[in-house]
Amino acid sequence: MKIDLSGQTALVTGATGELGRVIVRTLAESGADIALHYHSNETKAAELKNVVEALGRRAVAVQADVTKQDAVQALKQSIETSLGHVDIVVANAVAQYKWTSVLEQPAEDYASQFDSCVMQSVYLAKAFIPGMIERKGGRFIGINTECSMQNFPSQSAYVAGKRGMDGVYRVLAKEVGEHQITVNQVAPGWTISERERTNGIAESSDYIRNVPLRRRGTDQEIANAVAFLASDLASFITGAYIPVNGGNVMPAI
User: One Pfam family name from the record (predicted)?
Assistant: First the structure.
């Protein structure tokens, strides 16, 4: 068996980010054409488009604020003009902010997390799932986090946004399953990315002490899980929250 996404088009939001870039490359290596969403890093988006095209796949880079419904609809139109319909949606973009305690966290940080985790997913669903229903199939994948199960101090805004996102995905999976559309979430742990490989990997002894596999995962390992869920190999998996973190958190029954 192999992951074969030939003939499929995937949209990856936040494509220019550390994890987004690896997801894009992995999906392209699996045969998918790629719609690269970016918010502000146009230079990196252009570089990534060249990477995808060098792999023999079609690609388009589209700027949008995915926390705005009209911008997501415009994103959809741009993609369809260049590549046609989207078969795979990967909601990877998320707003960045400084973490602190509930008492000190600015209220706007909670709003930004709600917008970038919950509303991004809602707007993407409204834009792309109707077409998947017409075609009787599709993949809708969200990047969640192990933090949703940890609830550690200073994580409140992030956890609130990602837990809200989790609720949307679980309900959506039940609403669209009859159309052979799967809706799943990948939940990374503290992941080693290209930035750390370049600048030095952070000390992680306290973290890995509680990880059964006794190491941190890599961006490629997260991307592999996304590619699997995007493929026909995962055709009977939906409504899942899948930690990719060496067992650091384990959902219970």
Answer: adh_short_C2
